[in-house]
C-alpha cells in the first residue's frame, strides 16, 4: 500500500485523526498532505485584516498592542479585551471571559506576534463598528525556532480550518506525517519533470508546507498545479478513448425521411453555425461508436432546432430519441415546442411522422401508462421527460439518442441510467448547455466530450437592452420601471418579473448571495411582489404567479395561459430560467438582481427578445455604485457576450463549485489549479498526457500515475468531471 493511502488513524493520534475527518473530511495521509495552505503570512510583515466577513471562521496574523480589563455590565467580574494590529495598522479586538481571560492575559503581552483563529463578528456603535474575535484560539510566534533572519523570512502557512480545529493543529499533524514520509513513487515521469523544470513530488510536498521563502513555495505550487492538471487530463483522455471503443448502432441519414421533410417545412433558414454543427452531429450519428458531444450556445442560439434535427435522423433510422430536462416546466415546454415545430409530423401514422410523448413524475396513472407503452413499443419516436425517464420500469424499444438539456443539472449516475436503457449497444449522447464555457473550463470539465459551439443568433432574434435600476438610491427609477412595463403591455406585449424566493424563507429557488449586512431585508418574494403590483401599479393588468411549489398541472396551466397571451405579467422564480419560449414577451424585470449569479442573470434575460421584438431587461438592486455586487450587475448590463460573462462568473466562484464538487458533496481535486489563470498549465498538461497515453494507454509502465488515477476514481471524486 502506498504511504498516500495509509489511514490517518494509523499515522496520527486518534483524537487528531478524528477531528481531521469530522471537520475537513480527510481520511488518508494523501488527503492531509494535499490539504494545502490557503495563504501564507510573513512573520516580519504582518498580513492585512481587510478581507474579513461577518461569521466567517478566520485566522488573522497580528501584533498585540494593548490589553484592557473591562467590568461586566450585568454581573460582577471583568473580561479581557486585547487589541491586535496588522501590518497596515488595521485593528481587531479579542475578547476573553472567565478563566480563559487570565490564561490569555498571562501570555498575550504587548509586542508579541501570533496567529489568532475564531469566528469574526462586528460590535460597537453602528457608525464605527469594530472587528472582534470572541475567545479565539491563538498561537504565538516563538523567536527560538530558527535564526532571526530565517524566522522573519519563512512564510507561515495558514490552512483552511474549522470549528475545534485550528490551522496550527493542522500544521502540526502535517509535520508529523512529513517527518515520517519517506520516499514516494512520483506519478510524473522523470523526463517530463526535467522538460518543464518540475520538482520531485516529495520535495514539492515539503516545500508547500514548510517553505523557507516564497520562492521555494512558488516552485512547489508550480509542480503540484501541474500534477492536478496532468492527472485530470489523463483521466479525461482515457475516458474518451474508452468511449470510442463502445459499440453503438449507426443511425445514417435518409434522403427522403422525416428530417428532409422537416427541413423543407422550416419557416426560416438555418444559420451557418446551425448547419455546420448539424453536419458534425449527423456524421457522429452515422458511426458505429457512440457520439459524446457537448452543444453549447448563447441563450436563443437555436440549440433546440439542432437537437431536434439529430433526433429526427435517429428516428428515420428506426431508433428512438429521449430528451431529458431538469424540471417539469422545461420538459412541458420542450414537448410543446417540438410538437409545434414538427406540426403534422408529430402526429405519426398517415403523415409519415412519429409520436412525441411526454413523461413526467406527476402525470396521472392513465397518462403515465400510455406514455410508458408508447416508449416501450416504439410508437413514440421522441420521448421528452424529467427524471421520471430514469426509473427502472421505463423501457424503450430501441433507444438511439439521449439529449440532455442543461447538462450541469444532472450527475453522471443519472446519465448512465438512461444510457443503460439502450441494451447492449450504447446510445449516442448529446448534452446541451446555454451557459457558455471558457476554453480552459471546457478542456478540463468536458475534456472527454467533443464540443460544438453556436455563437451566431438566428435571424429574428432582437437585441436585448439591459439597465441597472438603483432602487434605493433613486426610488423614482423603480416607479419608472413599472410604467415601462405598462407601456409594453399597452403595445400588446408581455413581461416577466423574477424574484429570488416564493413567499417564505424556506422556499428559496434563486441563487441567494450571502451578505455581511445583518440588517439587510429578506429577499423579495413572488407572492409579496405580485400582491403589491396587483394592488398598485398593475391593478388593471392580468397578473399570474409561477413557482416551483405549485402542483405540476397548475404550473402547466399558468405557463400555457402566459404563452397564449391570456396574462400580461408573469411574476415568477427562476423556474422560467431556461427553455421557456414566449415570443411575445419583451420585458424582464429581475428584483434583487444582486442575489443571482452572473450566468443566471444572462440566462434569465434570454427569455425576452425571442419573437423579433426588442428586448428590455431591468436589474433592480439596492446596492450602490462601487460595491462588488453592483459591479457584477454592471458587467451584465454592458455586454451580451455570454463567454465574457462566464469568465466574470468563474472569477468570482470557487473552483470546486465550478466543477460541481459543492453540488455533489465531494471534495474537489483542484486545490491549487485555477482554470482561468492557469490556461497554459492545463494546455501543456493535456499535450503531455496525450503523448504519454499514445504510447502507454493503460499506464502499465507508469504505476505511480495509474495509482493516482485509481485513487481519484476510487474515492468517488470523479463526479465533478461531468459537471460545470
UniProtKB/TrEMBL annotation:
UniProt cross-references to SMART domains, sorted A to Z: DEXDc, HELICc
Keyword Heme attributed: no
Signal peptide boundaries: none
InterPro entries, per the entry: DEAD/DEAH_box_helicase_dom, Helicase_ATP-bd, Helicase_C-like, NA-bd_OB-fold, P-loop_NTPase, RecG/Mfd, RecG_dom3_C, RecG_wedge
Entry's Gene Ontology BP terms: DNA repair
Keywords, sorted A to Z: ATP-binding, DNA damage, DNA repair, DNA-binding, Helicase, Hydrolase, Nucleotide-binding
Pfam families: DEAD, Helicase_C, RecG_dom3_C, RecG_wedge
Domain Helicase ATP-binding: 284-454
UniProt-recorded name of the protein: Probable DNA 3'-5' helicase RecG
Top-level division of the source organism's lineage: Bacteria
Annotated ranges, domain Helicase C-terminal: 477-651
MF term (GO), any: DNA helicase activity
CDD domains: DEXHc_RecG, RecG_wedge_OBF
